[in-house]
Fold:
Amino acid sequence: MKHPSASVAVVVRFGLMMFGVALASVLCTGSVPLAGPAAAPQDVCIVAPPLPYDPASGLALHAPRPVPLDARCPVCGMYPARNLDWAAQVVFSNGDTHFFDSPLTLYQYLHDVGRFSPGRSAADIAARYVTAVDTRSWIDADHASYVLGSNAMGPMRAGNLPAFAQRQAAQEFAQRRGGEVVEANQITPRMLQSLSTGRVKHQHP
Structure:
């Protein structure tokens, strides 16, 4: 009959071996392996819910607000606070807010709200804002002019939609950097698809 300590030693060695396998997987893939054949793909991103309205902020319920350092874009997972010149946001009717790393991801979101925010729809959005290149301030996204197809690289180093408060400023930018000026109601899913080529892809349920 084996001594109990021998059995314990075997269990400990097996546990250490499995820990080593798991650790090697983390170091090689950057993610903890999931058990079972239905494990999610590694490029699926888990998106935090929109940030709630803070009455103590002194801001109106649907006014634009500063981008928190820990806010993440619900489309690509980036931190908009790292590139404030490109940041955008939507404010829902209850004051909840989503922040975006650029006008491009904002419009990707607006064209498919239910995909990125299950249970919500575009009808729930009370306001949407973009950062204007020419004024470096928040403006109504619906009233902005955008430059499509310029050589300006956004936060993800790919095509983007810089926004402008004045159409003339957008036209001058397009003359210097290329592209064409479009208005919010002219932005289509096909345009967004052409601009998103080369960006990091994230899958959403």
